[in-house]
Each structure stands twice: as structure tokens, then as C-alpha cells.
From TrEMBL:
GO terms for molecular function: rRNA binding. Keywords: Nucleus. Residues 277-286 have a biased composition (Basic residues). Residues 270-306 are annotated as: Disordered. One of its GO terms (cellular component) is nucleolus. This is Ribosome production factor 2 homolog. Belongs to the RPF2 family. It holds the Pfam family Brix. PROSITE patterns: BRIX. It is found in: Nucleus, Nucleolus. GO terms for biological process: maturation of LSU-rRNA from tricistronic rRNA transcript (SSU-rRNA, 5.8S rRNA, LSU-rRNA); ribosomal large subunit assembly. Residues 31-234 form the Brix domain. It comes from the Eukaryota.
Length: 306
């Protein structure tokens, strides 16, 4: 127990920087993914892992050596690699007679497996097979999900959340139109998941808004869902919990509508509108009769005697 409770103190400045990078933060770093090849991975699985690595760079680590492990039976090796490489997402590829061209996508919470979904590759077109121009490395993709299953079925809903976590990239404060050049499209239809990658081309349209065309650039995958290992509702809720410092403080008398418009309520003392200074206009000028009526005096005009 003493060895477990021991606090590791850095001996060099480099080690101190390393430990500071790993320690918990209010705003977490961009999630890194590790791509691991199983002990019996074939050429298709290897190419899939290489292409996903190309899409995820620089927020990914590709292990080129084969690792004999079965994530659904023993997760200790995955947890070890996660701690070693500081990765909270993983993609494991394997191949056997019972489950050919197998991919296992998952995520970690506190260096323990949270969610894990097994997908089978039925059709694969790699990046190099599509002879079109590619997006630069590190381009943040736009994610599109089509199909009712992503909203109706719990396993598909969790898969959607997992795919968003895996491909979303870094959080950015603002975007520019020219930076929106990469689309990842996921379609759930007839028990299959179709993944397609497109490059956005901005064409001349004769007006301010450009005409948009999509050009397929790869990789494209036809996937089928196999086994799942989902976290319990309590653990999943715990993983989504945010620290109190990040929660926005509620400001009094300020509200927002569904469109994001801010409304403010101000409290003022009762005003005497009769003393309000208005713009001086001839039309608003008081007549002598009105003035005398207000003062309680007699009209200056004398009534004619009969």
C-alpha cells in the first residue's frame, strides 16, 4: 500500500514538464487516439489503421508491432498502453475466421475502458485508391450523421457519441470559410454503417456565397456492428461530469432564448414623466391657458363685459 500511495517527485525539469502535462486540467487537452494492430491482423486491417491514422494525425499514435491481446476478454494491455501514451481513445484491428476484418473502437475514462464497440469491415477503399487531392494534415472535419438508428437505438447512439469523440479534433474559438474543407459522413441503413470522406470544393457562383461541391477522397468503409461493451448509466454520467469552475456562473436578471439572444432586466425607480425633458417643438409648447390652469390662477384674458 505504501508503494501505491507514494507521490512521484520529478528530479529534472523535463520530468516536471512531463508530469505537469499529464496532471488533471480544468480544460482538458485534445484527445489522442492509439491505433493498435492485433497479433493476427491482415493486410486490409493494417491499411485501415494506416488510413485512420492519416486522418487523425497529429492527435494519434500508431503501434506498428503486433500485440497479441483480446480487448473483450482482457483489457489490461489496452489500459497499460493508454497510460503509457496518454491516449483516451483507441482503435484495435484484428482478423480471424470467426470475425474477419475486425475493428474495435473505444474510449477510456481514468485509464480504464469506458465504451467499446466491435465493427466488421465489409468493404474498404483506401486513401491511395482514390486519385483525388487530399486535405492537409490536422484538418478539423465536419461530422454528419444520417439515419434514424443514431437517435433511436441505444447502441447506435453510443456509437455516434464515440465517433464524435474520436474524429472531432481540437476545440477552436472561431472558424473561417476556407477552413471548412473536410467532411466525414456516417450513414446508418439496413443494419450497416457507411463511412465516407469528402473534400469540400468552393466554386465560383457569381455572388458572395460560393457554390459548394463534394469530392470523394477516401477512406471509405462499409461497417457492420458486432459485439458491444457499454458503460453503465452511472459510470457514463460520472464521465460526463464537469468541474464546478467550468460551469458558467448564473448572472442575475439575464436570460437567453433558444436562439442565443441575451435579454437583460433592469430595475428603476418610478419616474415622474411630467418632468421629463423632451425635444422643444412649437407643437409641444403649452398655451397660456394651460399654464394658468396648472398654476390654479385666472386666465390673463379678461372676459368682455356685456
Amino acid at each position: 500500500m505504501e508503494a501505491l500511495d507514494r507521490v512521484v517527485k520529478p528530479k529534472t525539469k523535463r520530468a516536471k514538464r512531463f508530469l505537469e502535462k499529464r496532471e488533471p486540467k480544468l480544460k482538458e487537452n485534445t484527445k489522442n487516439a492509439m491505433l493498435i494492430k492485433g497479433g493476427n491482423a491482415n493486410l486490409t486491417v493494417t491499411e485501415v489503421l494506416k488510413d485512420i491514422y492519416a486522418v487523425k494525425k497529429p492527435f494519434a499514435v500508431l503501434y506498428k508491432k503486433k500485440n497479441i491481446t483480446r480487448p473483450f476478454e482482457d483489457q489490461t494491455s489496452l489500459e497499460f498502453f493508454s497510460k503509457k501514451s496518454d491516449c483516451s481513445l483507441f482503435l484495435f484491428g484484428s482478423h480471424n475466421k470467426k470475425r474477419p476484418n475486425n475493428l474495435i473502437i473505444g474510449r477510456m475514462f481514468d485509464y480504464h475502458v469506458l465504451d467499446m464497440i466491435e465493427l466488421g469491415v465489409e468493404k474498404f477503399v483506401s486513401l491511395k485508391d482514390v486519385k483525388n487531392s487530399k486535405c492537409p494534415e490536422g484538418t478539423k472535419p465536419m461530422l454528419i450523421f444520417a439515419g434514424d438508428m443514431f437517435d433511436v437505438n441505444e447502441e447506435y447512439r453510443r456509437l455516434k457519441s464515440l465517433l464524435i469523440d474520436f474524429f472531432r479534433g481540437p476545440s477552436v474559438p472561431s472558424i473561417r470559410l476556407a477552413g471548412l474543407e473536410y467532411v466525414l459522413h456516417f450513414t446508418a441503413l439496413d443494419g450497416k454503417i457507411y463511412m465516407r470522406s469528402y473534400k469540400v470544393l468552393l466554386k465560383k457562383s457569381g455572388c458572395k456565397i460560393p457554390r459548394i461541391e463534394l469530392e470523394e477522397m477516401g477512406p471509405s468503409l462499409d461497417l457492420v456492428m458486432r459485439r458491444t461493451h457499454l458503460a453503465s448509466d452511472d459510470l457514463y454520467k460520472l464521465s460526463l461530469k464537469q468541474p464546478k469552475a467550468l460551469k458558467p456562473k448564473k448572472k442575475k436578471n439575464i436570460s437567453h432564448d433558444v436562439f442565443g439572444t441575451t435579454y437583460g432586466r433592469i430595475h428603476m425607480q418610478k419616474q415622474d414623466l411630467s418632468k421629463l425633458q423632451t425635444r422643444k417643438m412649437k407643437g409641444l409648447k403649452k398655451r397660456p391657458a394651460e399654464k394658468s390652469a396648472e398654476d390654479g390662477g385666472v386666465s390673463p384674458k379678461k372676459s368682455k363685459s356685456g
